[in-house]
Design goal:
- The structure is a homodimer.
- Chain A is an alpha+beta fold.
- Chain A contains 22 helices and 13 strands.
- Chain A folds into 4 domains: 76 residues, no CATH class; 137 residues, Beta Barrel (Butyryl-CoA Dehydrogenase, subunit A, domain 2); 318 residues, Butyryl-CoA Dehydrogenase, subunit A, domain 3 (Up-down Bundle); 29 residues.
- In chain A, strand 10 and strand 11 form a beta hairpin.
- The longest helix of chain A is centred in the middle third of the chain and has 36 residues.
- Chains A, B: Belongs to the acyl-CoA oxidase family.
- Chains A, B: Keywords: FAD, Fatty acid metabolism, Flavoprotein, Lipid metabolism, Oxidoreductase, Peroxisome.
Chain lengths: 697, 697
């Protein structure tokens, strides 16, 4: 065990204490009341799981996709690896003939943002949507063939959410039939643009269109920004990386400033708005409601992704909580081979209260994302025939859902990390890194603290329509339904008389609907009849968006459990349905408990009923506890993806932690260089001072 | 503006748009209703501020204390700089003859954990407390002269909070009068030990004392662990760094495993427990209640520190919210030189609702920490005379306070960061880095999710004493007082009839006291008379600890505003008192609103009163808004400390962001090496594929 030279530090081969993590987690799996595989198929479908099984070993065995250095890398090493991975991905895609679903799986498994990915997420879809035929050939086709790499340059140093406030100008020059892009102020610099810093050679540029001194507001341009030969920025451009961030450091978020940068007329994407060559006549875009559908699709993906983020975090938290033991529980001691052992922390009710609701959130959000997609597809035909009624409700709801669910995800990831105690702070937990990379979800695709207002605005409008009698009843318009029900009796009371009444979906849904409607009616009254300004009401407007979206999620979760018998999805057995029903109830009642004051303001609940809700949450935790590990196993997240010492499938937490620590670069020598530079001189300084002091005495 | 070679990227000299950040923030300062300097003096005292003024320029002008590379460093560079700083600190301390207060200021300003600091925080105090006279000479004196560097090795890979579960053994060997330290399992490895990995040459080691096969549980030892000549670990030890963490990467948290490692008899710290040489007779420690006081002192510092953490975060958030403008507010448009400009985000009520309560939290916690110290000093004499009654309440409260306030700090830092929008995600905000380094406060000095139980246990005990009539009334025992008041009328109702009634401290305090007492009475009833097990009640036990501590903080805040006239502290003027009273009310009512359901369960509040609380919170935000910037200015946090582009005193946010981005290493060349390695080959691969595909057609 002793090291005599200055070589690397290696761990001695110490025995693992009984019961091992593997034994403990196996015991958890033996307790399952349902079949894990059946539930996984219900969540993902068989095809997806088969693809996953095929791809994991390819990545595990590819040196470029190796993750073993991930937690030790400097930013420079990280981003270099990200570019390598992007290059290798093209080769593997061709070799294995990966389709779109495979691609998503690959990037999900590798689990690190990379520069090229933004090309596909932002650059290509914008071109798809806004190019005319000529531009499709010029920009879109080479993009899809990966011959150019693009970025999406909208945000500026001084402007984010308010697109109308963008400062970059694109002035039409009739003489040369060009546009001149210019940054008038420091705050006009394009900023935060993913893959702009050092990667992209093309950019979508949002700039204010100016024709004959008239400002037509922001329009979309596409232009080359770097040489395709030597990658130098084109003359007139200053381009760089904006520096380190909390996460996302594998992407070169960049800045760009324009000094009277000229681009040809064809650069203005012309599917909607156009400028006539020469005359500079402006042709207005035709409004298209079809974009409604696209946005619902994007947001459905975001919501599903928040579900997967929580699935992943709770997998780590729950497995580790089953393995980690702390203190002897004197009232119900844990036994192992006849001896009392320390209790697994998952048996403490405080731990259950923290992490089991996050499992419930994960299921709720995965089903919500799926339901949004189902509705989207169900209505796509109706939309083509000009019928937007059904989707309008969903579209309006999707803003608030994006805001609510990405907050739920970010907070849930962090709560899972914290529930891991001290080791949760180590990068080897796999959750710190994930949290830092996930944080931007609160800001991108609409800042969470802004976009809920779209939902609130719709809710108020719907309320006014119901009051005015101008609303058309519709089976799919949830808002109309709960508002109408509320208005029939605004003094209604919750009918529950025992805690188990709160397991009844009807009781739960009525409470959520009443609470949302009460809040909407109140704010509408204040704004419409008491002159309360919008800005003054923002906190309450946020509350109604939140209340509405929680109603939507709760309803969706319960509905998902009824739907599978009717439709062409894998079936649930009795046991799987039973545990999911408990999970759905926990989701709803936990939300209710957290926001209890909202339910109280309307006097819908009595103090006794509040106690029943709290009691039922505790009872549900007891029901779900034995299935905690199987419920996260059903998320089917491979160890390769988790890259977590704490969340491993096999439960061997401590050997994994020590094996990872052995790779720490500081351990490559027994004595660091800093010893000679700093540590030794400190002692010498101290000894010298002591001698001087003694000499003075 | 164009760059023709592959040199570094430099920003063009673009004009800053009017109104500049500097102009906006000056306008904020002109609105102050009170004198910032007077308030600063009230918070810190004049002496402290004078020391601060003296030290800041010393550090700013010292190359080792320079922060300009901080956000760009790899872990290796970070920790190397930390050691350099530790060395330089010793030199500067001697040169400037710094005392303990100066030292704290220096480390606070530099604001980065460093290996040597733990020597002073953990190693030296343990020796102070537990050495006998011989050991003081042997260990303590050279430690205080910096001739040896120590760490505190308690936590193990498999054991954190449960000290009784530690596995490392220290077996007494009578033959040689030594102890043999050994790690029986992998989970026994010492883990997380700050400064152990590569710095310390001595360690405090917690290990189970075994004499003649009898286990006496964990005891404290001190031993040399590395050579003082070449820094190699001593034979029998495996020592290394545990790897990267979310933060604290400037410290080498380490591991250590013992292979029958022998240390002399004198190594067992013997002020309390002792082992007789030769016979191995064990001499029990005498219980000392004096340690009560020490713990209160440590926890008072922690609480004060949480206040400073929030002061710092809110300084950044508030200043940036004053400078950052977004959207035109149509109902009350912002004017500048007659023109309508975008509104500063601090004028949106949602932003006020998010960040102004954090200013209030900062003030509340700074005053709470100070009050704890005041009580500690007030009672130190009483304790020496054997009177522990007064401090008992404070000691029991301090566990829950540590838990509650460090959660408040961590969550508040993150909320401030998020309130900065996109730029809050940049390391240049100064808050991401701070958050990551601050996270361990939830775990160290007692895991937040465990230690509240100490407070809960005391609350239940006190309740039982009150019920049994065995409690002695005491002016300083807050718990007794509110419990007694509750028991006089458990059906009491809140007397408030208008929203302004909630500005009355009596009304507020009665509500907080009633709510705490109601919760305690209920849990006591369940545990004592309904057989509810402790583990089953953990969630409710957490609630009563929280309720009690919130009562304590609210009471302390209001008391602090009355006290200064009586005692020898700098005085508040009428204006300063007025704004602080609004801040105190906001603190209390915002807490009340967040935990409203707790106040409702007891039926103490009616639904109408709940609305009044919500209304009054909104009204207080309006009162405090004009003083927001002056209130954070009063925290007197120098720019050197903040190291934040967003939180600068002068408001010049955008020039600071661009200046920092210019330093990003990726910008040192216009084209990165990865272009040749990855980006160019991707294009070549794509072009080759296209040609192959065309050839096939």
């Amino acid at each position: 065990m002793t090291t005599k030279n200055n070589g690397p530090t290696r761990f001695p081969n110490l025995p693992v204490k009984e019961p091992t993590g593997a034994a403990l987690i196996e015991q958890e799996r033996a307790k399952a009341t349902f079949d894990v595989k059946t539930l996984s198929k219900f969540i993902y479908g068989e095809e997806y799981l088969a693809k996953l099984d095929k791809i994991v070993p390819i990545l595990e065995n590819d040196s470029v996709f190796d993750k073993s250095r991930r937690y030790f890398q400097s930013r420079d090493e990280k981003i270099r690896d990200a570019w390598r991975k992007d290059r290798r991905f093209l080769e593997l895609r061709k070799k294995h003939n990966w389709d779109d679903v495979d691609e998503k799986i690959v990037h999900g498994l590798y689990d690190q943002p990379s520069p090229y990915r933004l090309h596909y997420i932002m650059f290509v879809p914008t071109l798809e949507g806004q190019c005319n035929e000529e531009q499709r050939k010029l920009f879109l086709e080479p993009s899809k063939r990966d011959e150019i790499i693009g970025c999406y340059a909208q945000t500026e140093l001084g402007h984010g959410s308010n697109i109308r406030g963008l400062e970059t100008t694109a002035t039409y020059i009739p003489e040369t039939n060009e546009f001149e892009i210019h940054s008038p102020h420091l705050s006009s610099a394009k900023w935060w643009i993913g893959a702009l810093g050092r990667t992209a050679n093309y950019a979508i540029i949002m700039a204010r269109l100016i024709i004959h001194d008239k400002d037509y507001g922001p329009h979309t341009f596409c232009a080359q920004i770097r040489s395709l030969e030597d990658h130098m920025p084109l003359p007139g451009l200053t381009i760089g990386d904006i520096g380190p961030k909390m996460g996302y450091n594998t992407v070169d978020n960049g800045f760009m400033m324009f000094d009277h940068f000229r681009i040809p007329h064809v650069s203005m994407l012309a599917r909607y708005a156009q400028v006539k060559p020469g005359s500079g006549e402006y042709i207005k875009p035709v409004n298209s409601k079809l974009s409604y559908g696209g946005m619902v699709h994007v947001r459905a993906s975001i919501v599903s992704e928040t579900g997967r983020a929580l699935a992943r975090s709770s997998t780590v938290a729950v497995r580790y909580a089953a393995v980690r033991r702390q203190f002897y529980d004197s009232t119900s001691p844990r036994k192992w081979n006849g001896e009392t052992i320390e209790t697994s922390v998952i048996d403490y009710t405080m731990v259950q209260y923290r992490i089991l609701p996050i499992i419930a959130n994960a299921y709720a959000l995965m089903f919500t994302g799926r339901e949004m997609l189902r509705l989207y597809h169900l209505n796509i035909e109706a939309m083509k025939q000009g019928n937007f009624d059904i989707l309008a409700d969903l579209h309006a709801t999707s803003s608030g859902l994006k805001s609510l669910t990405s907050f739920m995800a970010v907070d849930g990831i962090e709560e899972c990390r914290r529930s891991c105690g001290g080791h949760g702070y180590s990068m080897f937990s796999g959750l710190g890194h994930f949290y830092n990379d996930y944080l931007p979800s609160m800001t991108v695709e609409g800042d969470n603290n802004m976009i809920y207002q779209q939902t609130s605005r719709y809710l108020l409008k719907t309320y006014r329509n119901v009051i005015a009698g101008t609303a058309q009843p519709s089976e799919h318009n949830l808002t109309l339904n709960y508002l109408a029900q509320y208005l029939q009796n605004p003094k209604a009371k919750c009918p529950a008389t025992t805690p188990t009444d709160f397991l009844n979906p009807e009781v739960i849904l009525s409470a959520f609907g009443f609470r949302a409607a009460y809040g909407i009616a109140k704010v509408a009254e204040q704004i419409d009849h008491q002159g309360r300004p919008w800005n003054d009401a923002l906190v309450d407007l946020h509350r109604i968006s939140r209340a509405h979206c929680q109603y939507f999620i709760v309803r969706t979760f319960f509905t998902a459990l009824q739907r599978d018998n009717k439709e062409n999805t894998p079936k649930l057995g009795t046991e799987e349905r039973k545990i999911l029903q408990a999970v759905a109830s926990l989701f709803a009642l936990h939300v209710m408990e957290k926001d209890l004051s909202d339910f109280v303001l309307s006097s819908y609940f009595s103090a006794e009923q509040l106690e029943m809700v709290k009691q039922q949450v505790q009872d549900l935790l007891k029901v779900i506890r034995p299935d905690a590990v199987p419920l996260v196993d059903a998320f089917a997240i491979p160890d390769y993806m988790l890259h977590s010492a704490l969340g491993r499938y096999d439960g061997n937490v401590y050997p994994a932690l020590t094996a990872m620590a052995e790779q720490e670069p500081l351990n490559s020598t027994q004595v660091v260089d800093a010893f000679e530079e700093s540590i030794k001189p400190m002692r010498q300084f101290a000894l010298k001072n002591r001698n001087n002091d003694s000499a003075k005495l």
